[in-house]
Amino acid sequence: MPASLPSNTPPGRPGDPPGTGATWRNKERREPMLTLNRRALLAGTALVWAALPASAASFLDVGEQEPISILINSSPWYGGFEAVVDLYVEQTGNEVSIDATPYAGVLEKARNAVRTAESPYDILNLDQSWNIEFYQQDVLRPLDEVVAGYALPPEVITCGDSYFWNPEKNFRTREGGKLMAVPPNCNTHVLVYRSDVIETPPATYDELLTACQAAQDRPNLYGFATRGERSQGINYDYMPFMLSYGAKFVADAEAGDYTVTINSPEALAALQQFLAVQRSCAPDNVGAMGQGDVIQLMAAGSAAMVETVVAAWANYTDPTKSAVVDTVAAAPMPEGPAGRGVPIGNWHFTIPRNIPDERAQAAMAFMQWFLTRDAQMAYAEAGGIPVRSDVIEELSAEPEYAWMKAYATNLAAGVQALGFAEGASVDQVMALRLNQALIGELSPAAALNTAAREIEAIFAQSGRQTGTLPALAE
């Protein structure tokens, strides 16, 4: 880093008082095993593979880099990421600072970072419902501007192509789009169940309702639960039902048709099924349950089935946290009348424009290292969710990683359900109205009709071609 740090540098950078903010990981620098031509690196040429010992045969030798700071969410998969960062520091001697922030605070910090003269962060981890805002504002560096000609390794999962941005179409698409980010995960739901209670996991949502009612012994054992609190979580956990019933938020966003379709008969049938399962089988306070509550319910052995993101898996297999280590299993999401519906809820490692080139190169070096096969293996072994298909395929054959088969099945059906700039605002509307339906303040039809009118207003304010379907009978 430069000797004189910008005033907006996060606490914890070298020279700041110790113990006051982001955590720096560092190691006494040592000679790299293969010297990297730093002039070539700074000119934007590709990094080279190093002749490393067998224990690190596929790791990338990035050479000596400037320290970097990463803004990331403190989430169920954070422990795996923290472990792989420590491995990077150990292998390279390069310093990394992590600012692990609760979900609700990440967006504000990221917005502030790109609006200042110089970002305090070198990598911003952005949720899939936020990143379009940053793409549109041109505050992030396309990755091939940092390393000329850079493309994702073919084994890396592109998670519905949300890492690409086509400014002419104003849409996230690989077709004509620039690569703007790399995946730290490609999160999807899985159906988590206790194999000692559920002999055969349900294949459909009708079977899910029947199985959860049969399995439960309230209040000792609940048949099923997923998030119900008034946050984006309830909308995300409703989406598998919604998509599997053939419903969606808008008619055809990529083609520019933003007619709101969330109050369709299909969306209503999906919501009615979602409510039936939650009200029949979840705890009475499901309307206030967040992700941590649902995870704890299964980890304590108090639920027969839960719907959680795959990134939560390590919580179920850690013997210090879980009572179901030997019986927990994962299955693909059930199917509805339209098949299997899986929303992708992935994150994006991005590089802000407003940092010096040397810091951008250092950020890129870390991201390239992170996507190597061996780094992804280490990530998975530490509890992270790998983003390489070869790693998923190899590990899924091992009993302790059998959950990856369900993950791979869900990925094949995964879509970006909120793939438009107004996604975060739509999320907020849906969170409120779905929660009101769950706790009985609104009927299912009234909740969807109200949401449709409010979402139409959001699109109209953005200048979209929009409208709504006829109102559902309330």
TrEMBL record:
InterPro entries, alphabetized: Bact_solute-bd_prot1 (IPR050490), SBP (IPR006059)
Comp. bias intervals (Pro residues): 8-17
Region annotated Disordered, chain positions: 1-29
tRNA processing listed as a keyword: no
Location of the protein in the cell: Periplasm
Pfam families linked to this entry: SBP_bac_1 (PF01547)
UniProt superkingdom: Bacteria
One CC-aspect GO term: periplasmic space
Annotated coiled-coil segments of the chain: none
UniProt keyword annotations, A-Z: Signal, Transport
Family that this chain belongs to: Belongs to the bacterial solute-binding protein 1 family.
Descriptive protein name: ABC transporter substrate-binding protein
Species name: Rhodovulum sulfidophilum
